[in-house]
């Protein structure tokens, strides 16, 4: 397992660049998931609760 130190340095630099960019994909996924859940809540609210009217 004799790897060139220059290759290891290049791989470390690539990894550092990826980490420096941050978790943008995870944040986008969380935002999309949240929007879907809120959208489904509104659909449920307008399709189920409002047609039933006021409960007494």
UniProtKB/TrEMBL annotation:
Listed A to Z, the keywords are:
Membrane, Transmembrane, Transmembrane helix
Q: Which residues cross the membrane?
A: 26-50
Protein known as: Cytochrome c oxidase subunit 2A
Q: State the organism's lineage.
A: Bacteria, Pseudomonadati, Pseudomonadota, Betaproteobacteria, Burkholderiales
């Amino acid at each position: 397992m004799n790897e060139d130190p220059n290759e290891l340095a290049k791989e470390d630099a690539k990894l550092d660049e990826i980490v420096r960019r941050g978790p943008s994909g995870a944040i986008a996924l969380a935002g999309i998931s949240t929007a879907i859940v809120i959208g489904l809540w509104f659909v449920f609210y307008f399709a189920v609760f409002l047609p039933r009217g006021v409960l007494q």
